[in-house]
Each structure stands twice: as structure tokens, then as C-alpha cells.
Amino acid sequence: MSEAVKPLQPSEATPEKPVSRRVFLLKLGILLNAIAAALFAVPVIGYLASPMRKFAWMSWISLGPLENFPESQTRLATYRNPYTKPWDGMTANIPCWVRREHGDNFRVFAINCTHLGCPVRWFPESELFMCPCHGGVFYSDGERASGPPPRALYQYSHKVENGQLWIKAGQLPTLGEPLA
Amino acid sequence: MSLRQIARDVGAWLDHRLGLSGPIIEAAEHPVPRSSASWWYVFGSAAFAVMVLQFITGLCLATVYAPSADRAWQSLLYLNYDQPLGWFIRAMHGWGSNFMIGLVCIHMAQVFLFGAYKYPRELTWVAGVVLLLATLGMAFTGQVLRFDQDAYWGLGIGAAIAGRTPFIGGRVVKMILGGPIIAGETLSRFFTLHVFVIPGLLIAFVGLHLFLVLRLGINEWPMPGRLVKRDTYLAQYHELVSKDGEPFFPFAAQKDLVFIGLIIAALVVTAAVMGPIGPNGEPDPAIIETVPRPDFFFLWLFSVFALLPPWTETFLMLTGPVAAIGLLFLVPFISGTGEKSYRRRPVSVMILVLSFMTIGILIYLGTYSPWSPHMEAWSSVPTPVDYVSGRTPLELQGAVLIQAKQCRNCHALGGQGGMRGPALDRTATRLTPDQIVRQIVQGGGNMPAYGRNLTPAEVNAIVAFLATMHPAHQPPARLAARPQRPEQTDASP
Ligand code: FES
Question: Domains in chain B and their CATH numbers?
């Protein structure tokens, strides 16, 4: 077995067939495959791109009773994102800043800096929001004070009902799709 | 029959069917220019070797890692602390990623310096750029799979950049995140990329890259004055390897082997000494006491985003990467022929040095990010004793306010505190009291206006304190328009 053996070669004889029929079959084959590929690709792309579809991600959610939010103060509140899956775990617990000016006059700010989305922190002593990433600063009403952020903090739409503060939440705010 | 005989028989049996021994021997012994069997040519094969290690450690990790947003972080801790040798496999994978990026960059720099991308090896370079991008893609997606606070906010930064796309920004964000927020499907998407899509790309393009290297031959050592011309190069190269060539194996391969051995040993030692990378805090968005930082190799991007002038930002964030990647792809088509030696290509050498210097400086800046406020400085950093001794009660009140109003988060005293704004140690030598008031109340530069948040009395106290901030030998600033005080006039002629 160890002696040199000629490598196996496929047989070279292929029976001749009429050319026109061969070309026709080839074209038919390509056409059928193009159709089949399209039939297959549409659902695959639809599946992968499904998050891009228009969908009512946003809905009203309660941040708790009004007593949690003293007047002229800014408090951190956390809500469970209304659109969530069981395996989202803690990532669906979204924080936000609630400013109660007086009475039922509220402002609810997204946690995300309008520059690149880092979590802004409230400093009650100087009444400023500061961003740990690139030094963006915002005033207590959310207006941009300094640094790279291009606009004021994102604000949730909100309402007061049954002694509770409700916000319309459900998606990460970005410049392309601010909350309200 | 001896074992050796059996092995030889099995080999012959297989070869009779596969017929591969001929091509393999031919490939291993293909002639390479004698000059190319150099220590400069070992980086590509070392990057390949580290990639193979990454595949092996990655496979190991995949047997334990739970790619699910609610469990991923715990499974990483399990790998670090409970799974036997899990810490080592994670360390190998994490440090292997750093090694691979380093080797790929050195390899690319060498190819660029030696003009190896020129005719007829343009496509080899193009495949190499794809491999660079795939390697960086692996690094970024891998950083996401290390699902901790940095991963979470890093995704937030990615989403914020994507959200700046005109018209379709919101949709692009949801496509990347796999939903409206950073959550379970986000991790699953990045897992798919990291484990299936990009590795597939890597294998395909490594195959193409190697095939082209074999087919076109290894670049000869560039000689100044030996120009690449389209109609003569192939014949010249052929003559070179037939006259002065050596078989790749073992002549060039031996140096590759030695270097690969050294690199793998270095990687194993690094992993064993440094241990696994992260994870840091759990990916709970409600924990906002965090200072998100990307991994080492993306620090330079982090710096760029901080330093870009805001009005150019959106435009540059969206077009910059496309332009940079496009330029990389175009390199062999911009200068596909001519001089190969770096001795005769000063512009290329300058481009290379400048790029490495720029990225190096940006990474260095990123490691201490002077533009980020020091969020705990106001409550955790002391006021230097020299600055409070012998001060009046009003001035002391000012010193207290500088802590209490978070000024220290951006302004340092005695070298401690934020670096976002100027240090306050010599403020009085630069600004008159009136100018200090204006700066505090109206803000400007990168400083917010504190007019709404400080009472006039508080401003007074802070200014009184800052007016004392000048060295004993240097007088405080004064308005040039005002006459100097009498005791100072005698100094003038
Ligand atoms: S993310 Fe807030 S300043 Fe950049």
C-alpha cells in the first residue's frame, strides 16, 4: 500500500447534449433560484429588521405617589420599562430625574446626557446636572449650561392622575428620537 | 508493524484520496526572497496564531457564558471565581484581544512602510483592511459581551452616535439595540456578531489573505531606487526568487515559529499575572454613580468625541469613520506603483508617524480624560492648608463654598480636583475681582453661569477667597486702564 499510486481522476467523458436545451435549463435554473432567494430573503430581513418597524413602544407608566417628590427638589426615580422581556433583567430598570417646581408643576428628565448618552448626575448644592463623560452641564430646568451637549436634557411627557405622577416612557432617547 | 509504519500507511491512504500532499508541500516550500526571511516579517503570522488562540479560548468561554441580559454578568463572575481555571481562560481571551490588536497594527504599519501593498498586492491589502476592521469589531462586540456598567453605557454612547444620523436616526438606534432600549435583545445581537458573524468573516478573509500571499509571493525587501512598474514587476520578482530565493519552509518559517512561541508565552504570562479583565459593576442602569470608560483600544475615540468642537461633531462622527476607512482601502490605488523603500517615501513615513503619534496622544489623554469632571472631588478632596491659613472669615467662607458648590469637580486646588476648568491656585494673577465676579455669574468658556445658583453674598465670599490666590512674589492682576496704586508707582521710572 505504501507504493506511489496515481491519484484518482474523475472520468473525462461527458455525453454531449443539444446546446439550446442546456442554455435554457441553465437560465431557468438561475431564474428559479433568484425567485427562491427573494422569497427567502424577504422574511429573513423582515425578521432581523423588525425592531425598526413603527411600533407603539411608548406608554404611560407611574412613577409613584406625588408625596415622593418634594417641591422645588430634584429626585431620582426608577421605573420598569413598559416594553420588556422576562430575560431583560435589571437592564429594563430605567432611572430618570423628577423636578417638582411647585404643586402639579413637574419636569421629568431622561437620565441620558444629550451629548453621548452618559448618565447625568444632579447636584442639589449647586443646582446643576453634571455629566461624567465629557463635562456637559445642565441647569435645574434642564437647559444646557455648558460643555459639548447640543441641546437641553430630554423631557418625558407627564401627567398627574389619582395622586400619582405618570410619564410616557418606553425608549432610549437620542437626538434622532427625543422623547416628546 | 511499527507505529511509524502504520502512520505512514494511513497517510498514504488519505493522500491517495485527497491528493493534497503535493499542493501542501509546494505551498510550504514556495520560494521567498532571501531578504524577506527577516524578523520584520513575523507579525502577520503571530497575529494569526493569537487569533487561533482566541478561537479556542472563545469556544471555552461559550460553554459557560450565559448570553442573556439577566444572567450574563453573573456568569462572568462565576467564570472568574467558581469555574475551575475560568479566570485564566477569561484572562487569555481578554489579553489575547489586546495582543491581537497590537500585532495587527504593527503588521499593518510594517506593510505600509515596506510598500508591500503596491502592485500586484493591492487586493491583499484590501483583505487586510477588512481583517483590521473585523478585529476591531471583535474587540468592540467583546467589550459588550463583558456585560457590565461600561458595556451598558458604551452601548448608550453607540446609540447616541447612531441617533445623530439624519432622518432615520431613531430607526438605526433600534436596529442596533434590537429594540427600544438597551436590554436582552441588544446583548443577543452583539453575541451573534461576536460569535458567528465576525468570526466567519475573519476566517473567510484570512483565507483570502493567505491565498493571495501564496499566489503573489511575499514582498521582497524594499531597495531604494528599485521602482515597481506594472509591466516589469512580475518578471523582476520571479527572477529575484529564482536566483536569490529560499524555500519558505523552513527558511522563513523558522523565524515566524520562534516569534509565535515568544508571543504565546508572553500572552500566557501576561494573562496569568494580570488576571481576567473585569467585569466591573453590574449593568444596572439605575446605578448612575458610574464613570463610563471604553477599553484601551477605543480610548482614542473617546478622546476624539470629547475634544471635537461641538458644531463639527455630528458631521464628523458620521462621516469621519467612513472617510478614514475609505482612505485605508484606497491606499494601494493612490500609490500602487513606484518607490517601495521607506527611505525614499518621506510623506508615507510622516503619515505613519503622525497617525501613531495622534492615536498615542489621544489614548494617553483618554487614560486621565482631563475633560471629565471629577465627580467626587467636591466632597472627597481636601483644601490645601496653605490656602486657608491666615485668611479672613469671609475668605474662609469662600473656600468652603468652593467645595460645597462642586467647583472642585472641574477646578483643581493644589493639584487635586477636576481638570475640566483651569486650576484655581493662581486665579488672582489672571483675573481682577470684577472679572472673577463676571465669570462666576455669567459663566463662559466651558463654565456654566452660577448667577442663578449663588446668592450675592456667596459670590462675594468666593471672590474674596479667589482674590487671595496668588503667590507672595507675584502681585494680583489689575486693569491696565486703572492707575497703579501709589506704593507701586515708585518702581516705574
Ligand atoms: S455624554 Fe455628557 S458630555 Fe458627553
Answer: 30-368 (1.20.810.10), 377-490 (1.10.760.10)
